[in-house]
């Protein structure tokens, strides 16, 4: 897909400043870490400590930011 200038849309990603690249990289790492912690917690909890079947939470956790947050807020019995 080309833009008006004749460049591809992926080429505009290279126009980010180094600070923006580091910021986006850090945000990405935090997102991956959040999902990893949710998967780790899910795998180490007993079935009776999790609301609903544990396999049902796997695709939920894969949804960026919302999935791990939903698991920690609503998936764990307190």
Description:
By secondary structure, the protein is mostly helical. The chain is 58% helix and 0% strand. It contains three helices and no strands.
Keyphrases for this structure?
78 residues; mainly alpha; elongated
**What is the number of E strands?**
0
Please count the helical segments: 3
Global morphology: elongated
Question: How would a textbook summarize the main sheet?
Answer: none
**Uncertain ranges:** none
- Radius of gyration equals 18 Å
Oligomer: single chain
Protein name: PLD nuclease N-terminal domain-containing protein
Keywords: Cell membrane, Membrane, Transmembrane, Transmembrane helix
Transmembrane segments: 22-40, 56-74
Subcellular location: Cell membrane
Summarize the SSE layout with pairings.
Layout: H1 18-44, H2 54-61, H3 66-75
Helix pairs in contact: 1-2, 1-3, 2-3
Summarize the structure.
With 78 residues, this protein is mainly α.
């Amino acid at each position: 897909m080309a833009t008006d200038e004749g460049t591809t849309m992926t080429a505009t990603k290279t126009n980010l400043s180094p600070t923006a690249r580091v910021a986006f990289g850090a945000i990405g790492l935090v997102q991956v870490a959040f999902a990893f912690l949710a998967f780790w917690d899910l795998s180490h909890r007993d079935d009776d400590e999790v609301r609903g079947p544990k396999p049902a939470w796997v695709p939920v956790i894969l949804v960026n930011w919302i999935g791990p947050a939903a698991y920690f807020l609503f998936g764990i019995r307190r």
